[in-house]
């Protein structure tokens, strides 16, 4: 029997979200916000569709759709890919500032193409953490720091996750110690001691439908974890990379970045585009 060229979609989870008045975990309804797969450009990739009628509905549902086309998988040997984010809650300038924030970094800020490639790689980790936090937020339809912390532990390797969670705990502690006067004189990022904008992460979590109710501490945790992850990955690259020198100055390129990440088993899996990988170099 001839099959349609359109990939068949199989829904594994219907994550029901509510506005905070309970009853979300007992009912499942359809929604137009989902992760879908497209066959454009000759391959499978995921994209976010955000055509939900209203963010403030009493009951909203996020359908997490996994696309599995047996013929495509058998013929091409490829697996489903993660969605490539068009908008990330950070800028390249913030990434450069976050990398230079670490006093142990003796090398200058990498060039723009390296920063851009590093941003793409870390954005895949952001998608994995957000999807896992979305799943963990199902029971109470609320995303707090505990869901983000658990998602980071699940997605990242033990050493990397502990580094990120330590940075998140430190940022939240600094935020809680700020005075009431700081609320009017400084933003949340400054009160947390972070370079990344906490407000952008909060907005990104809301627009991505991680949960209908998102606590501010969840956004602080996610921003701190991603900022720490940039420094962790960059530090590992500097330790593992064989940098060429141009007139005595270390030359840092995208190829060197890729080679260093390919040689690091704790980072390699989580920054790959294949959605079935988490941490560890566990696939050929």
What's the short story on this structure?
The protein is an alpha/beta fold and 284 residues long.
| Structural class computed from helices and strand pairing | alpha/beta
Uncertain regions spanning at least 5 consecutive residues: 1-76
Query: Helical residue percent?
Result: 40-55%
Which H/E pattern describes the elements?
Answer: EEEEHHHEHHHHHEHEEHH
Strand content: 5-15%
- N- to C-terminal distance: 33 Å
Strand order of the largest sheet: 1-4-2-3
Rg over CA atoms: 20 Å
The average pLDDT is 74
What about the largest sheet?
4 strands, mixed
Task: Tell the overall outline.
Answer: globular
Describe the structure.
With 284 residues, this protein is α/β, with parallel strands linked by helices. Helices cover 45% and strands 14% of the residues. It contains 11 helices and 8 strands. The strands form 3 sheets. Strands 1-4-2-3 form a 4-stranded mixed β-sheet, with no helix packed on it. Strands 5-6 form a two-stranded parallel sheet. It has a two-stranded antiparallel ribbon with strand order 7-8. A hairpin with a 2-residue loop joins strand 7 (244-246) and strand 8. Helix 4 packs antiparallel against helix 5 and helix 5 (158-176) packs across helix 9. The longest helix is centred in the middle third of the chain and has 25 residues, at 112-136.
């Amino acid at each position: 029997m001839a099959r349609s060229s359109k990939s068949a979609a199989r829904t594994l989870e219907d994550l029901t979200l509510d506005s905070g008045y309970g009853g979300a975990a007992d009912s499942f309804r359809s929604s137009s916000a989902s992760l879908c797969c497209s066959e454009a450009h000759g391959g499978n990739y995921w994209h976010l569709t955000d055509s939900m009628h209203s963010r403030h509905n009493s009951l909203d549902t996020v359908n997490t759709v996994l696309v599995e086309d047996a013929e495509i998988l058998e013929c091409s040997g490829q697996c489903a890919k993660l969605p490539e984010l068009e908008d990330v809650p950070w800028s390249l300038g913030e990434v450069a500032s976050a990398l230079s924030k670490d006093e142990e970094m003796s090398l200058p800020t990498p060039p723009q193409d390296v920063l851009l490639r590093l941003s793409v790689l870390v954005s895949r980790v952001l998608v994995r953490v957000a999807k896992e936090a979305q799943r963990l937020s199902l029971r109470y339809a609320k995303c707090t720091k505990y869901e983000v912390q658990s998602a980071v532990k699940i997605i990242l390797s033990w050493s990397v996750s502990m580094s990120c969670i330590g940075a998140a705990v430190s940022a939240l502690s600094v935020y809680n110690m700020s005075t009431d006067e700081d609320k009017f004189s400084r933003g949340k990022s400054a009160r947390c001691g972070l370079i990344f904008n906490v407000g952008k992460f909060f907005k990104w979590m809301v627009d991505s439908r991680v949960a209908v109710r998102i606590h501010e501490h969840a956004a602080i945790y996610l921003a701190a974890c991603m900022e720490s992850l940039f420094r962790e990955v960059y530090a590992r690259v500097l330790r593992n990379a064989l940098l060429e020198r141009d007139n005595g100055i270390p030359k840092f390129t995208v190829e060197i970045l890729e080679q260093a990440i390919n040689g690091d088993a704790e980072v390699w899996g989580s920054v790959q585009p294949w959605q079935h990988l988490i941490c560890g170099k566990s696939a050929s």
